[in-house]
Amino acid sequence: MKKPQIAADTRPWRDPDAVPFVRIRNVTKTFGDVYAVDDVSLDIYKGELFCLLGGSGSGKSTLLRMLAGFETITKGTIEIDGQDMAQVPSYQRPVNMMFQSYALFPHMTVEANIAYGLKREGLPKGEIAERVAELLKLVRLESFGRRKPHQLSGGQRQRVALARSLARRPKLLLLDEPLGALDKKLREDTQYELVKIQEQLGVTFIVVTHDQEEAMTLSTRIGVMNDGKIAQIGEPQEIYEFPNSRFVAGFVGSVNIFEGVVTEDEDDHIRIDASAEAGCDIYVSHGVDCAPEQILWYAIRPEKMVLSRERPEGDANIVHGLVQDVAYLGDMSVFRILLDSGKRIHVSQTNVSRYDPEGISWDEKVYISWEADAGAVLTS
Questions:
Q1: What is the C-alpha radius of gyration for the chain, rounded to an integer number of angstroms?
Q2: Residue 309 burial (10 A CB sphere; 0-12, 13-18, 19+)
Q3: Where are the beta strands (DSSP E) in 32-94?
Q4: What pLDDT does residue 205 have?
């Protein structure tokens, strides 16, 4: 999927001299003794589609509400486009927010819903009509302007809510679980629409979601939140392939994690004794900042592992087990395997053939192997 063109060439977050559009510094929000957001610092650049990803209670929605001005900051600062927001009420901020419920007025037409904020601003009728028409075209609802919300599908209502939130031309649009009310197929289709609209407008989007697949599809960068803190910030591929902790590795996608002890620590490789969980040594083809005898965790994605009936060559990165379950998902099959050590892992394979009568199936003994650079070494 084509990502927004904001930083295709420069990626401002990689430029130490780039000026952030949104600057969050040491922001904390407490409710009594509970830290909903705990000392969060974050820079977001103009034109980004940034996703805050986390589970329930991680603090992502509270952080979004502080950006909007709906919650006060206990400690820290938030700047938008160089302006400190501390004394700026929500209705004066260059920000708009789109809620999961869409909050459309049921008695108003689509056109009236989109025009509502513009009328409150006192814009001339001609300018309002022109902007509403422009937004209806943007969200591909030109022929739906006279309809009421109950006459629309879920995806259409979502687009009306998006058009309404863009009507006042905010510099920053905040979206709280914007696709959460849609079914899976419609949600997937709407993700592409959202990226296309954001790309056309160049408005900075900050999206809150608990859906890691949605975050990977939409975002230029992702901030993974846990217990009120930012666990990791990075581009989607970086978050997925190079997680910085067991939490991030487990939260973003499916993963197998083996605990072990470092037995060799060289500049160009390390060897981990993971016999207790994997039944083998794990060889990693690059150096790691660790010490001999240090406990580490090795995380490897199911699609990076290879199944075979015959033992591959080598003395490391080869485990053995019994196939307990096979889930056929159409494009891929997921194998649930009980290793000889007693640990269960998942291995996935792409279904390149329509039917494979010789394919590995239930109750088979198999070997599982992987390349020396296939996984990530974690120290926490």
A1: 25
A2: exposed
A3: 34-44, 49-53, 75-80, 83-84
A4: 93
C-alpha atoms less than 13 angstroms from C-alpha of 150 in its C-beta half-sphere: 3
H-assigned helices in the chain: 60-68, 110-121, 125-138, 154-166, 184-201, 212-218, 236-241, 246-251
**What does the pLDDT read at residue 2?**
46
- SS3 category, 248: helix
Element (H, E) at 171: none
Supply the pLDDT for residue 144: 92
Short-list 80, 78, 100, CA closest to 175: 100
* CATH fold group of domain 5-94+170-247: Rossmann fold (3.40.50)
Fold of 254-378: OB fold (Dihydrolipoamide Acetyltransferase, E2P) (2.40.50)
Q: How far apart are CA 121 and CA 100, in angstroms?
A: 24
pLDDT tens digits, residue range 176-207? 888 776 777 777 777 887 888 888 888 899 99
